[in-house]
Amino acid sequence: MMSGGISGLAGLAVGILASALLAGGKLAANEIGDADRGRDVFRACAPCHQVGADATNRVGPQLNGIFGRKAASVDTYVYSKSLARAGSDGLIWDLVRLDAYLENPKALVSGTRMNFRGLKDKQDRDDVLAYLRLFSDDPANIPEAQPTARPAEVDLPPEILALVGDPDYGEYLGSECQTCHQGDGSDAGIPAITGWPDEDFVVAMHAYKQKVRPHPVMQMMAGRLSDEEIAALAAYFGGLE
Amino acid sequence: MTFHRRTFLGATAASLAAPMVMGQGSPRVVVIGGGAGGATAARYVAKDSKGAIDVTLIEPSRSYYTCFFSNLYIGGFRELSSLAHSYGTLAADYGVNVVHDWAIGIDRDAKTVSLAGGGQVPYDRLILSPGIDFVDGSVPGWSLAAQNAMPHAYKGGSQTELLKAQVEAMPQGGVFAMIAPPNPYRCPPGPYERVSMVAHKLKAENPTAKILIVDPKEKYSKQALFEEGWQAHYGGMIERIGPDFGGASVEVRPDAMEVVIDGEVEKVDVCNVIPAMKAGRICDLAGVSEGNWAPVVPATMQARADDNIHVLGDATSQGDMPKSGFSANSQAKVAAMAVRGALTGSKVFPARFSNTCWSLIDSDDGVKVGATYEATEEKISKVDGFISQRGEDADLRKATYEESLGWYAGITADMFG
Ligand SMILES: Cc1cc2nc3c(=O)[nH]c(=O)nc-3n(C[C@H](O)[C@H](O)[C@H](O)COP(=O)(O)OP(=O)(O)OC[C@H]3O[C@@H](n4cnc5c(N)ncnc54)[C@H](O)[C@@H]3O)c2cc1C
């Protein structure tokens, strides 16, 4: 179940917790990253994205002003249903969400059409975001603009991702979800949650719980689940096809 | 058919006159009412006990027409046939004995249910989810005998169809009146969603028509959202008379199609009377009601009056939960777990409940309200909640409507398999 490949996702979970813990304003003052190096990292994005004065939509939308931009809001670009839904739900591209999306696009927006496996290296993400920051409003001029400082790292107890859920409990807890999410995995307007890898499921639920993912219903549902309960649900739904 | 076999088996078991003992046949659960609460409970007990419990569902109708989304049918967003659900899968795939009949009496000492068609069905645990009936005389001048002239359309199926036909037959510039119910009643936003859907239809077909709501309540569910939406979409069409202006002292005259509000006579073309409600009559017959509703133990949904009977959905006094299909479905899962625990010793976890109610105000303009709940000693009590905000953008309202379609597909699959 909770085998390999956790470290990257743990990073995302750390980011989530960090943002929640530091929301009180104790942001460390270091810059996001090295924008010059970020220009090189952006080569990985360039086949699909443009930035700068003449930027147009290519495979993906242009990324000018991405900080503080509502997800899926470039009028001239046709987005996936999932990213459009996240946008309607209120997903705004701030540092934490951009970092999460670039690390693992599908953990933040399950059905996104961005076919990019993600930047696992934290330094790469920091640097490319510092570069993209150059094409967004300058926070020195606009007080409400997105902060350029990255919160200091916080250690997330690895137990959270290593928890193995009780499938019986998961089945009972999961019955509550099935008023909306169909057990057979069909999607008639509410996404399917069956057969996901455990880690993705756990990260998605924590993202709702920490209000990193928007959506009031899911924030409320996840809000009262303990870490063990989320693990139990991941085990149960992961086993449904 | 199956039912006769069951009666027979049951009679034999009952004559043993011993408390249920494992090994002497499976324990028997009887569910009365195949709606949001009852169908869910029957399915979960049958599914999760994997054949260890014998489940019988007693429901007179062969097709269940959901009340939820019936307003969307009135507005022209759904076909009536899309609201009908059969019990075929519950019988075929889950092994539930579906008996199409009315329960007319319950003998709590003998633990049997009697049927209108004759015969007794024995139970070890009984689950009641009969929905609502109307309080006699709550709207002077109206009785069930007048339901064709002035429909309630508050139970699914033919009443909804009749009300829609009457709206379509209104003369140009005519008046649609609604007598709104006092608290508590099923689906708190339901009457106001209905007004929205009637307005949507009239705006297209009969734009000079008027809608008059006569309401005994000071305020109602999602009021700010409805009022904002009515202003934006149907400006000037809808008028509401609250209790300050006589909304609580109303009389109807079905023969003359008149509504008398605080002594003033209004001539109307359609009159939708939604009377005060109480638990389905079988709760009275079982002796589990206190006043209009059946009190329950929140952790298990057992009737306060009898440990062998669980009551679900609209019929219960449910503490902080609103009477909704979602709530009934949520309570059914708690009851199913408690029933299995009692009869087969399966694991029992702490009860948790939730509810979300969507309402459609106009095309692609959906709103929602929801909450989570837990069982405390004295009631089902609210933990957390949310409600749509005024002035939300069109994208979000459309997404909200679309997720309500997902919910309808989800809950009906959860009820009927
Ligand atoms: C216009 C309208 C809109 C609504 N919209 C929503 C919505 O959007 N979302 C939502 O969650 N809820 C909604 N509801 C509320 C929802 O329909 C009810 O709360 C829900 O159906 C309650 O479930 P229940 O099991 O208590 O009763 P019901 O679903 O009414 O089921 C009761 C069943 O018991 C049967 N029965 C009764 N007496 C007997 C007897 N003696 N013997 C055998 N069978 C019997 C009946 O035939 C019926 O099938 C709406 C209701 C209305 C009227």
Features:
heterodimer, A: 241 residues, mainly alpha, Cytochrome Bc1 Complex, Chain D, domain 2, 2 domains, 11 helices, 43% helix, disordered N terminus, B: 417 residues, alpha/beta, FAD/NAD(P)-binding domain, eight-stranded mixed β-sheet, binds flavin-adenine dinucleotide
Could you estimate the helical fraction of the residues of chain B in percent?
25-40%
Which band does the percent of strand residues of chain B land in? 25-35%
Number of strands of chain B: 25
- The total count of strands of chain A amounts to 0
Instruction: Report the CATH topology name of the largest domain in chain A.
Output: Cytochrome Bc1 Complex, Chain D, domain 2
What is the name of the CATH architecture of the largest domain in chain A? Orthogonal Bundle
Q: Tell me about the largest β-sheet of chain A.
A: none
Q: CATH homologous superfamily name of the largest domain in chain A?
A: Cytochrome c-like domain
What Rg of chain A is obtained from the alpha carbons, in whole angstroms?
18 Å
Mean pLDDT of chain A: 80
Which ligands appear in the coordinates? flavin-adenine dinucleotide
Query: Please, how many domains of chain B?
Result: 2
The helix content of chain A, as a percent range, equals 40-55%
Structural class, from secondary structure content of chain A? Answer: mainly alpha
Distance between the termini of chain B: 22 Å
